[in-house]
Amino acid sequence: MEIVFVNNRKGRKAFVDLPRSLMGNMPAFIPPLTAGLIHRIDPGRNPFFKHAQTGFWLAMEGKEPIGRISATRDELSLEYHEDGVGFFGHPLARDEETMHALFAVAEQFLQKKGLQKMRGPIELSTNYTCGLQVSTFDLPPMLEMNQNPPGMDRWHLSYGMKAVKDLLAFRIKEEELDLKRLQRVRAISERRSKVQIRPIDLRHFQREIELLHKVYVQAWEKNFGFSPMSKEEFEATAKDFKTILDPRLCLVAEQEGKAVGFLLALPDVNQGLRACNGRLFPLGLFRLLWAMRKVKSLRVLTLGVIPQLRGKGLDARLILELIERGLKVGYNEAELSWVLEDNLPMVKPILDLGGHEAQRYRLFEKALT
Fold it and tell me: When you count CB atoms within 10 A of the terminal residue's CB, does the N or C end of the chain come out lower?
């Protein structure tokens, strides 16, 4: 076995396509969107790398990739938290021995960058895909949620890592909803704060993104592991999502003309990726678009409210507005993910609405000595 540094398009393609060979036999496997993920890990194309240093590695047996990992020093995260934490991401390997060898490479990289602790799986930062899947492996994950074979949590622990936080994915189906409860919460919330909720205006997309970035910075600043996202990076991510965005599912809360919260939900494009096997060319794009016509589920990626309006039911109002709008246009299932396991102000309302835990993801840490 040889571990090689990835620094060209051919290597990046092998890196993002590795799940096809190591997980392709899993019944719930979602093939990676090759082109999009190559773009994401390319330092020349993703603005994230303007404030971060990342290494990518493949474990090779001859010419065959049998494992991968990444490691990141994110300057914005370090400046914000002052905690000396670096991230490892994309862990995947054929066996425990290979995975441990890759962990060691990531650990050495982060040590040389002057960091004191490694945390992950976090792909680049917490603004991207996070957590190791540890439950419900027979259920296909939704858009931008991680997927890995069962048992990999034991490989993390046997390397000397400790589990530090679980991330939860909740699903709500139309027949399980308690809309009356939500409507009561909305009535109370409307009395507490005069907030208007509207869909995003794609005619003024750039202006909208600037408003939402300001809310994003305030709404998530106290969350565990929050990694600040530069304005340029936020805009680039928004433009990527715009290609599949249904404006009826992206909601902005305003008070006296000022944005104070927002909710972003996207159709579950993973169903389309299964139809085209994650490849858009030469005919995959048509297969994806055809499959997307039948998609009835969506994922709530982002739900945030500025600190001054928390605890006043605005988050519940945003969820209810999304549910009502989604049902009108044919969506009958939603996933709210990810939610920190100890974020009770968010977990309890979701359970009260009729939601249930669908999948669980775990973050691990290890001190660098």
Answer: C
